[in-house]
Structure formats: structure tokens, C-alpha cells
Amino acid sequence: MSLKEKILNLLYPKHYTCLFCHTEIDEALDICDTCQKTLPYIKDKVCLRCGQVVHDESEYCDNCKRSTEPWKFDLCRSVFVYTYPITKMIRSIKYDNAKYMFDTFGKLLTQLYLDHELTCDIIIPVPLHEERRKQRGYNQAEWLAMDLATSQNIPMDTEHLIRSTNTPSQTSTITTRKDNVAGAFTVTIPNIYHNKTILLVDDVITSGATIQECARVLKDIGGAKQVLALTLAHSPVRDTSLPIK
Ligand SMILES: [Zn+2]
Ligand SMILES: [Zn+2]
Fold first, then answer.
1. What's the gap in Å between 5 CA and the centre of ligand 1?
2. How far is the CA of 143 from the centre of ligand 1 (A)?
3. How far is CA 90 from the centre of its chain?
4. Which three-class secondary structure state does DSSP give residue 30?
5. Which ligand gives the minimal distance to the CA of 237?
6. What separation in Å is there between the alpha carbon of 66 and the centre of ligand 2?
């Protein structure tokens, strides 16, 4: 907190509430102590590639080990396990226009980036199809990436990676999801990311198919050297009741 903010707070004390449980808290921390302790932050050992929690000595999760296609994204890390109440919050930022949550979530993503000592040249939020973006009025991935881009002074590109087909938002199996995202993205200017490290930002990773497909076109068409990804949440070991992404 800056000196100016401290003085303003003394003169005009504000009332802050926890973003998750709405109890009153003293400072603009956004999340109260109780919630900090109980929220499903990812703290355990994770898959070196996709960031999925692994419960044994393996370096990679079963999903990554089983994958027969070449790995296109180099690394993904996430703040939370995609379970309640995070599932509910993410639904709110996507469908209930709960924009006030982006500030906290954006800061958590910035912290994740710093904690993992990542570096990148360009941030690219995973794009929505133009139709869906118009319906929703915003792309939640772009809002999530905002704090990282501004606080770390990293350029954000929302123009050259585009979603060319409007894939359904919910499908039942990983296989259908992969088929759905195959060819869904493209880079509009060949080689525009020549030799660059790109950081993708999205709300959730489940099967990894979306991130994988974005990374494929960023490298194959855009010429990117490396593709990293940060998401707010990572699905626990596959739960078929949740939308696959
Ligand atoms: Zn709380
Ligand atoms: Zn993995």
C-alpha cells in the first residue's frame, strides 16, 4: 500500500469484504484468512508439463504420459484445483458478468507467474469466437490477463490468434473435445511470433486440448519458440460432470 493510500485509508476508512465468503475484513486483501486456508490452492507436487497434481513419484501425470501427439505447449501452471467454490466463481465470471472478481483473480495469476519465475515476450488470452465474445460482451481470459500485462509491462496481443470456428462450450468426453478444437484456432500473420516465448492465459484447463491446439498454431503458423500457459484453475483427475476444455 502506498503512503497516499495509507493516509486516505486513515481519513476515510473503507469496509472490505472477502471475495469468497463476504465476511468483513480489515484490509483490502480481497480474501479473508479463513478462505485463504480452505480454498483449493494447488500446493502439492504437479506434473512438470501440464500442472496437474500428481499423487505419486511420477514427474508427469497420466494424461501427459498417455498422450500420443507431440507436446506443443511447454508448461502450464494453475492457481486452484477446479472444485467448489472455484467452479462457481468461474461460472460467475463467464456467465453472470461478475467483473469485480477479475481484480483478485488477475493478481493471483500475476503472483503465480512470479512464483514460478516465468518469463515471456507476449501474453495472449485464449480467444473466444467473435460471436460468443459479442454475446458475452468480453473475453474473460483477456480480463484475467490484464493485471499481469500491466503490472509486469508485458505486451498483450488479442488480435492475431483467432478462434475461427465456434465450438460448443460443453462436450462430454476428452475425445470429442479434441475433435472440436482441432482446427478451431489460427494465427492471422504467418511467422509473426518468430522466436518469441508466448504466455497463454485462460480460466480453466481440463483435458489441455484447447491450450494444446493454440500452442500448435502459435508454433506451426506463428513461428513461436516456446508456449507457456497460466490458468486460474486446473481440473482434478477427470470428472466427467464438468465441461471439458
Ligand atoms: Zn472469506
Ligand atoms: Zn500432465
1. 23
2. 23
3. 11
4. coil
5. 2
6. 9
pLDDT tens digits, residue range 12-55? 666 678 888 888 877 666 788 888 889 999 988 999 999 999 98
Centroid of ligand 1 to alpha carbon of 34 (angstroms) = 6
Domain extent listing, the chain: 1-38, 39-234
How remote is the CA of residue 141 from the centroid of ligand 1, in Å?
A: 24
Distance CA 145, CA 119 (A): 14
Ligand nearest to the CA of 85: 1
Using CA atoms, how far apart are residues 185 and 165, in angstroms rounded to an integer?
7
Q: Which position has the higher pLDDT, 243 or 49? A: 49
39-234 in CATH: which number? Answer: 3.40.50
Complete DSSP assignment for 46-87: B-TTT--B--SS-SS-HHHHH--SPP-S-EEEEEEES-TTHH
For residue 134, the CA-to-ligand 2 centroid distance in Å is 33
pTM of the predicted structure, to 2 decimals = 0.86
Report how far ligand 1's centroid is from the alpha carbon of 73 (Å).
34
Residue 142 has pLDDT above 80, yes or no: yes
Please check the confidence at residue 240 and state whether its pLDDT lies above 50.
no
Inter-residue contact 120 to 197 (CB < 8 Å):
yes
**Residue 6 alpha carbon to ligand 2 centre in Å:** 44
Measuring CA to CA, which residue among 151, 172, 169, 31 is closest to residue 89? Answer: 31
Q: Residue 147 C-alpha to ligand 2 middle, in angstroms?
A: 27
What's the pLDDT tens digit per position in 169-191? 554 555 556 667 888 999 999 99
